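During the reporting period the student researcher (J.K.) took over the structure-prediction task from the postdoctoral fellow and processed the backlog of single-chain submissions. One of the processed entries is reproduced below for the supervisory committee.
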Amino acid sequence: MAIPKSGRSPIAKNALTILINISNDLEILESLAEDDTFLGTILSRIANPKEPNANLLSMLLANLAKSDSLSRLLTLKRPAIPSLSSATNALDQLLDLFNAGVHGKYNPNATFEYLPYVFADLAK
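J.K. obtained the following structure tokens:
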């Protein structure tokens, strides 16, 4: 039985909330933060202008940034996001996302208020 589209968002929201909560455990944090595929998925989804859970994704990314392994965001290359930025550096894209998201200009569902925590942890 397929889950109707209207029922998918609460499932994703709950799954993200669980990931946010369990990422407080150091072993789980390191496992999630070191997973390149997982990080790529988070970055792709958070940059989607229609993502209803973008704020939760930014909160999860803020938790993951507590791991030293996420310092790779400083040099990680990603495809440019034409609707957002011509930048190909992941950190530059996140900065552009935060700037565009402050007033809901990029994604009306998100303000990306947790991204500054990512930036702060990367600056340490």
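The committee noted the following: The chain is about 55% helix and 0% strand.
J.K. will present the remaining backlog at the next meeting.
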